[in-house]
Amino acid sequence: MKEIFISYAEEDGGIAAEIAERLEVAGYTTWYFERDSLPGVPHLEQTSLAIEQASAVALVISAASTQSHQVDTEVIHAHETARPIIPVLHNLSYAEFQRRQPLWATCLRAAAAISLTSAGPAEIAFPLIMGLRALGVWPRSGRVGAGGVHPLTCASVNMGPDTALVAITGEIDVGNCVQVREYLRDLLAAGVTRLVIDLSGVEYMDSAALGTVVGVLKRLRDIGGAMGLVNPNPRVRRLFEITGLSRIIGIYDTTEQALAGFDTGEAQALL
């Protein structure tokens, strides 16, 4: 059973594969025909079962897919089985998509679309994962804590040549903080010096998790960089306050405020 079914035309196979890769890095399991189909089994039978077992559908909408009978069948089946669909527009405007496939537009129930840019699927990974979260679709893997299952996931999107927005979800503790540390260090190694970390999806942090944040902050300080934290829940925010970390790391309500803090030098001044 795979969590995300990716619907696409053959011409968009490369895009589907990269979307799958980005989602899998964030902890989701994915199904797309080119990789996961079985020889000898009818196409319709395989895709229907995969859609029924999935929690959501990522639909690549392009000139090719709007003319594909197979994609048309997948969209209708996803709608009939009440699977939420996240539309990803590729070289097509929403208005043009509606004109070409009015039935799909009805099936999508006015769902907001994500548009691919010249940067490709890497650029849409963050909004796609945030959209899945908003729909209540989380990776099935994860540890069970007192509050239930809170899988740890990290996803990022470039906000500029040296700026990255990172969304972390789940619980961060001594058992998995190394994963977060390595993820953030990889971004720094790739040239990121301004780091915005969205904590709105983080349910819990322990002292080891705080140590991870401080360690990354020190690395940023060494290279003249800055860090901002966005929208932690009251319990997590209180943890930063009582440890004094809120005096050296900017905590903001929105991503826009954090980015403005970088531009005005406010975030650097805290260092």
Structural domains: how many: 2
Tell me which CATH architecture of the largest domain applies here.
Answer: 3-Layer(aba) Sandwich
CATH class of the largest domain: Alpha Beta
Spatial order of the strands forming the largest sheet: 2-1-3-4-5
Number of strands: 12
Taken as a percent bin, the fraction of beta residues is 15-25%
| Element-level helix/strand string | EHEHHEHEHHEHEEEEHEHEHEHH
Describe the structure.
There is one protein chain. The chain has helices spanning about 15-25, 35, 45-55, 70-80, 95-100, 100-110, 120-135, 175-190, 205-220, 235-240, 255-265, 265-270; strands at about 5, 30, 55-60, 85-90, 115, 145, 150, 155-160, 165-170, 195-205, 225-230, 250. The chain folds into two domains: about 5-135, Rossmann fold (3-Layer(aba) Sandwich); about 150-270, STAS domain (Transcription Regulator spoIIAA). The radius of gyration is 20 Å and the shape is elongated. The chain starts with a strand and ends with a helix. It is built from twelve helices and twelve strands. Helices cover about 45% and strands about 25% of the residues. Mean pLDDT is about 85; it is low at about 140-150. The strands form three sheets. The protein has a five-stranded parallel sheet with strand order 2-1-3-4-5, with helices on both faces. It has a five-stranded mixed sheet with strand order 8-9-10-11-12, sandwiched between helices. A two-stranded antiparallel ribbon has the order 6-7. By secondary structure, the protein is α/β, with parallel strands linked by helices. About 40% of the residues are buried.
